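re: ur question from yesterday

yeah so i grabbed the chain u mentioned. its 119 aa long if i counted rite. heres the sequnce exactly as i have it in my notes:
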Amino acid sequence: MMQATRRQQKPSERIKMRIKKGDTVQVMAGKDKGKTGEILKTFPLENRVIVKGVNLRTKHMKPTQEGESGRIVTEESSVHASNVMIYSTSKKVVSRVEIFVDKDGTKKRRLKKTGELMD
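ran it thru and got these structure tokens back, copy pasting raw so excuse formatting
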């Protein structure tokens, strides 16, 4: 009797991420552990981020036009959001992000270790 193959479905809910595009992060696990870089793009449905200069992949491109030669392109691939932490450039330390409500009722992000405001 044949078993039905299971397809991996994409989650329909966005995952609330505490990191945003433009934040400086440090990789905490994987082959690029210890590297720092800026977040270029976030994928809240997959809980993944693309970090500049981290998890580089080489892609061999075929020539598209006549007379053009093929080329090798190096581009960043996504990293799971749990493997990165916010990096404070002023204090040179990684820290967790704490979301708190300001006196005027707006939500703000701040680093737990240094108390530095993110935005």
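noticed a couple things. The two ends are 58 Å apart (CA to CA). also The CA atoms of residues 17 and 50 lie 13 Å apart.
anyway ttyl
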